[in-house]
Design a protein that fits this description.
7 helices, globular, 212 residues
């Protein structure tokens, strides 16, 4: 976890890359386009029930998950906004898809509740970090892997409901990815909580030493 305060003027990423303040960058544009895909998916899936088109939107949103980050590092366009947009777009895709899938009974509510509980846990950790003047932790590769598995699972599960000929295979593959994604999602969440707790303890220890 980054030990920089959220108020730092020229923060660095975990790989030493300088994080800038630019807003109009190609990676940020890609992230904005990904965000626009969320209401489009919800409209296609819940309103007009155009499942094939919804599958395409989900697939594009999932496969471009890594693109914005890769371009940001490649073009040296890492920005504070991008660091927030990328995980926000991931979470919004996952949550919107889960709620829509639960509404149409593609996934059981218990699966959705398990993922939502993890998000609430992470929100609590972020609130604690902000109270101590720190921003959100950098995205861990375990969390990125979990996100990739979930975003890959959703279109496959939807294919299984849209086509009876591949329902069995799609269900097996989709649920395999989904359950692994759920497990890793919680593992990543636990790692963030542990890191946040260590950071808070170190801050309190330094404050206590200064007071003494």
């Amino acid at each position: 976890m980054s030990r920089r305060p959220a108020r730092a003027e020229h923060p660095q990423g975990t790989d030493g890359t300088v994080v800038g303040d630019r807003v109009l960058t190609l990676p940020n544009l890609i992230s904005f386009v990904r965000l626009l895909g969320v209401p489009l998916f919800l409209y296609l899936f819940l309103v007009v029930e155009a499942d094939v088109a919804a599958i395409v939107v989900l697939a594009v949103g999932g496969t471009t998950d890594w693109v914005d980050g890769w371009i940001a590092r490649r073009l040296r366009q890492v920005s504070r906004l991008g660091e927030l947009l990328d995980p926000f777009a991931d979470r919004l895709y996952i949550l919107a898809t889960l709620l829509a899938f639960t509404a149409r009974e593609v996934v059981p509510w218990q699966f959705t509740a398990a993922l939502l509980a993890r998000e609430l846990l992470l929100l609590g950790s972020l609130a604690v970090l902000r109270r101590h003047g720190y921003g959100p932790p950098p995205v861990h590769y375990v969390g990125k892997t979990a996100t990739f598995l979930l975003l890959a699972a959703f279109p496959i599960l939807l294919v299984g409901t849209a086509s009876e000929s591949v329902a069995t295979a799609a269900g097996a593959i989709g649920w395999g990815l989904a359950w692994w994604g759920l497990v890793l999602y919680w593992v990543a969440g636990a790692m963030y909580v542990v890191q946040a707790a260590r950071l808070v303890r170190s801050v309190r220890a330094r404050s206590g030493g200064a007071a003494a």
